[in-house]
């Protein structure tokens, strides 16, 4: 049976399940996931992984006897939305929602795939696999969503990023994608060499990143009265200090990366510098080698986001 993580359940049949989507690439065995929310009224997926993990997702849905009515996408980066077209083929009655201006990239994903593949490199692109189109008839707007769902615009990690809030199984749940960065939540124990989870946040600030925009989104999520936060990567937390910590991390990075650039540090040197300067990254020392390598790779993206921001700000 596929490995799934039951995050919540209630006597009336409502449940929340994290479906890990292992990818055939070192360090990505437990990094992608899809959230499955089941109730009497609807069966909803939040994010769906890449095309290369669709078989694992479909297998888990079959084992859980789950037929999704709705797919909600926090953003259209392919590690969150790449399997959307595959799902539409398997579940032709399923509707899809993403930030409205981004929907065209689901309907015609060629440019999105070309840009992603060029960034990823051949080996990673092969593991992702190309997306297939989402039918335009499947795409809906936020006004067409059930009133049970609240959509919050949370740009920063991506300009088209949204977060979702819904009451279920006696909890108010926030599906935040990468609005607060990448967290080591409940469910990420396999990241650690000794299996002991250490909470932390890794900033998800790829180019083009604007710190003030990301911070504003974090403050929006801090103002929402959620009980449980579900991260895109990875797992859950009930730590209400998470948005404040994430914003403080952005403050720290804005300060420290500026200093590092003034000192003439290279991107790689800044990554090393920030792993030492940022207390939220202390847990990296306890990761397995493959998981640490993955995080260092993405930290390079995060550094590039700040470096580009400063270069554009200074007109360089």
Sequence-ordered SSE layout with sheet pairings:
Elements: E1 5-9, E2 15-20, E3 33-38, E4 43-46, H1 54-63, E5 70-72, H2 78-81, H3 84-90, E6 95-97, H4 103-107, H5 110-120, H6 122-128, E7 150-153, E8 162-168, E9 171-177, E10 182-183, E11 201-202, H7 211-223, E12 228-231, E13 235-237, H8 242-262, H9 267-277, H10 289-313
Parallel strand pairs: 4-5, 5-6, 9-12
Antiparallel strand pairs: 1-2, 2-3, 3-4, 7-8, 8-9, 10-11, 12-13
Describe the protein in words.
- The chain has 316 residues and is of the alpha+beta class.
- Helices cover 36% and strands 18% of the residues.
- It is built from 10 helices and 13 strands.
- The strands form 3 sheets. The chain has a 6-stranded mixed sheet with strand order 1-2-3-4-5-6, covered by helices on one side. A 5-stranded mixed sheet has the order 7-8-9-12-13, covered by helices on one side.
- Helix 9 packs across helix 10 (289-313).
- It starts with a strand and ends with a helix.
- The model has no long low-confidence stretch (mean pLDDT 95).
Based on DSSP secondary structure assignment, what is the total number of beta strands?
A: 13
Shape: globular
Please write the string of helix (H) and strand (E) elements.
EEEEHEHHEHHHEEEEEHEEHHH
Using the CA coordinates, give the radius of gyration. 19 Å
Termini separation comes to 54 Å
Oligomer: single chain
Tell me the structural class: alpha+beta
Q: What fraction, in percent, of the residue positions are helical?
A: 25-40%
User: How is the largest sheet built, in terms of strand order?
Assistant: 1-2-3-4-5-6
- SS strand fraction: 15-25%
């Amino acid at each position: 049976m596929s490995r799934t993580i039951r995050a919540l359940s209630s006597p009336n049949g409502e449940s929340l399940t994290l479906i890990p989507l292992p990818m055939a690439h070192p360090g990505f065995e437990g990094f992608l996931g899809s959230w499955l929310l089941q109730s009497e009224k609807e069966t909803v997926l939040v994010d769906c992984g890449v095309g290369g993990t669709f078989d694992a997702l479909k297998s888990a849905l079959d084992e859980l006897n789950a037929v999704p009515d709705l797919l909600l996408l926090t953003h259209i980066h392919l590690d969150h939305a790449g399997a959307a077209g595959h799902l539409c083929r398997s579940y032709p009655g399923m509707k899809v929602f993403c930030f409205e201006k981004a929907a065209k990239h689901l309907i015609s994903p060629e440019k999105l795939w070309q840009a992603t593949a060029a960034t990823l490199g051949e080996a990673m692109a092969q593991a992702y696999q190309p997306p297939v189109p989402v039918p335009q008839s499947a795409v809906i707007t936020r006004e067409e969503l059930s009133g049970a769902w609240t959509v919050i615009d949370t740009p920063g990690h991506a300009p088209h990023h949204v977060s979702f809030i819904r009451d279920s199984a006696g909890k108010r749940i926030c599906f935040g994608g990468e609005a607060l960065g990448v967290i080591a939540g409940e469910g990420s124990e396999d990241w650690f060499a000794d299996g002991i989870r250490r909470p932390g946040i890794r900033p998800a600030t790829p180019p083009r990143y604007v710190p003030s925009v990301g911070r504003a989104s974090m403050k929006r999520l801090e103002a929402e009265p959620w009980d449980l936060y579900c991260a895109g990567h990875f797992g859950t937390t009930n730590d209400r200090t998470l948005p404040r910590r994430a914003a403080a991390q952005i403050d720290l990075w804005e300060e420290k990366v500026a200093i590092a650039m003034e000192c003439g540090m290279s991107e790689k040197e800044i990554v090393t510098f920030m792993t030492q300067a940022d207390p939220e990254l202390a847990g990296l020392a306890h990761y397995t080698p493959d998981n640490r390598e993955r995080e260092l790779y993405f930290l390079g993206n995060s550094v590039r986001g700040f470096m580009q921001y400063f270069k554009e700000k200074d007109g360089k």
